[in-house]
Amino acid sequence: MNTPIEGFSKLTKEEKIDWIVSNYTQEPKEAKAILKRYWNANTGLQKLHDEFIENTISNYYLPLGIAPNFLINDKLYALPMAIEESSVVAAASKAAKFWLERGGFKTTVIGTEKIGQVHFMYYGDSEKLTAFFEFVLPKLHATAAHITKNMQKRGGGISAIELRDKTHDLKGYYQLHCTFETLDAMGANFINSCLEQFAQTFKQEAQTYSAFNAQEKDLEIVMSILSNYVPQCLVRAEVSCPVNELTIADEEAMAFAQKMVRAVTIAKVEPHRAVTHNKGIMNGIDAVILATGNDFRAVEAAIHAYASKDGRYTSLTDACIEDGIFKFWIEIPLAIGTIGGLTNLHPLVKLALEILQKPSAKELMQIVAVAGLAQNFAAVRSLVTTGIQEGHMKMHLLNILNQLGATAEEKNILTQHFKQHAATHSAVVEAFEKLRNSNT
């Protein structure tokens, strides 16, 4: 039976590996070899990776692919995408090429406001609290000046600080609701530093505020933290073309346009479909977010919350036909950055941003939104025409053959075979076994 360990973080990397493979793997020697196989031979680069997080034992690789031919606001991009799902890069590339010939993608940044909050408890007179807030507000700005100085020089900083009464939700609960402009930085550290300074000043000033009684002076700061929900940090991406230009194989253009609109409408009204619909959007978004060193968990949380903003989970994309024009668009919150964090440290992140022509945070917001829209267009197009499995399983074919241990020659033969046949998992296994047996 395994036992807890004290001081694991203080062990050397080799000692950590020896402990984990000895206690939690069936073949320690083989497990250790696998972990070391993914070390980077460049010791300087490996040391950099080791220091990204605590208790590093190896690197976990994802494929980095390129989806070319994205025309965004009349500028051509090739999108770096880090993802393991087999059909994502192919689908994005296909959608990019389709819209390249129809005017490309148009995007608009609607807002860049980010949010942080100081949550506190106060059980006294609300009017006295309001008066205290007005008194202390200039001091909140003043005591955070050393934090905001550099950001302000670049045109960013604190946008607003509001006192919000949340006692209808929880007795005694109030918050300082603060908004920020962080320019090309995602801004998490900047925002949290400001919030902690606000909390300290707020608490200290309350203790000497003459209008407060003893209980009111002792208001309790619960926590100070940014919010990953940023409904005012919004970007819109769209495509449109005359319906008669929606030529898809044997599909009649108007019939195809109507199918697309109907499929999106179903995702607007049916949450079970909306979740999968939006997951497909996130395939494109997360892949670019990862490649550019941004926080995909924060982005996911914000976008899915936004999908529920009206009280019901719904599609992030919309589609319509107006005056003979097919329109397809997305509007999502994105708090991301192109400086700070991994963007300054990870060599592949630096390269990905260079491939994207060193975008500002606003430009990256637009690129990411387009990746999500393109992915959704490709997925819905497949669903309403050939079905999703045909393309997905053909892209997944090599994964299945690798699992089966196929040789290079067998992969070549079976890849050619499945260009003409449906590539279900059982069909691939059957064809592989037939080929292997015939060779034997």
What does it look like?
- It is a single chain.
- This protein is of the alpha+beta class.
- The protein contains 16 helices and ten strands.
- The two termini are 46 Å apart.
Which labels suit this protein?
440 residues, alpha+beta, 4-stranded antiparallel sheet
Which helices and strands occur, and which strands form pairs?
Layout (H helix, E strand, L loop, with lengths): L12 H12 L3 H10 L5 H8 L13 E9 L2 E8 L5 H13 L5 E4 L4 E8 L4 H18 L1 H9 L3 E9 L7 E9 L6 H20 L6 H4 L2 E8 L6 E9 L10 H17 L1 H21 L4 H12 L9 E6 L2 E9 L13 H9 L5 H24 L3 H17 L3 H10 L7 H15 L1
Helix pairs in contact: 1-2, 4-13, 5-7, 9-10, 10-11, 10-13, 14-16
Question: Brief overview, please?
Answer:
The protein is an alpha+beta fold and 440 residues long.
**Major sheet size, sense and barrel closure:** 4 strands, antiparallel
Helix and strand sequence: HHHEEHEEHHEEHHEEHHHEEHHHHH
Poorly predicted parts: none
Main sheet: strand order: 3-8-10-9
Distance between the termini: 46 Å
